[in-house]
Amino acid sequence: MSEQSAPSPSPAAELSSDPAGPLPQEIASALKRDSSGLVAAIVQQHDTNEVLMLGWMDDEALHRTMTTGRVTFYSRSRQEYWRKGDTSGHVQFVKSVALDCDGDALLVRVDQIGAACHTGTRTCFEGRDFTVVTGHRD
Questions:
Q1: Cys bridge to 71: 20, 85, 92, 112, which one at CB 3.0-4.6 A?
Q2: Could you tell me the pTM of the whole model?
């Protein structure tokens, strides 16, 4: 996760649910953020439905993602924004953004160029399967 941009204040300071804020009121009021002001963003390849990764967004990161055509996350460890691909070249081009029924997770459908994971794998889940008992319909 070496991708980054200019440092920013904590996400709680960036929250805006007023009409003058970066997000439209109906989106800002529908989001259910965690105690740090963040929402989980599941990233999926738009044409194969492959789940690529999970990142975190505050209102500003979501606004940037919705208005630039590129995915921006908020790094919890570095406490700054980072736009996917700025340093790696593994860019995510936004195709759509949706909010789940509870308002606490986003689905960001993208056209992924290169690896989605900072480890160099196509997805952050590749090669990390657990052994499980599988269920079956009766």
A1: 92
A2: 0.81
Q: Residue 22: name the closest of 58, 46, 75 by CA.
A: 58
Q: Mind spelling out the 3-state secondary structure of 31-95?
A: CCCCCCCCEEEEEEECCCCCEEEEEEECHHHHHHHHHHCECEEEECCCCEEEECCCCCCCCEEEE
Task: Please report, in tens digits, the pLDDT of each residue of the chain (138 residues total).
Answer: 444 443 343 343 333 334 345 889 999 999 999 999 999 999 999 999 999 999 999 999 999 999 999 999 999 999 999 999 998 999 999 999 999 999 999 999 999 999 999 999 999 999 999 999 999 998
Residue located via tokens 């200019």: 6
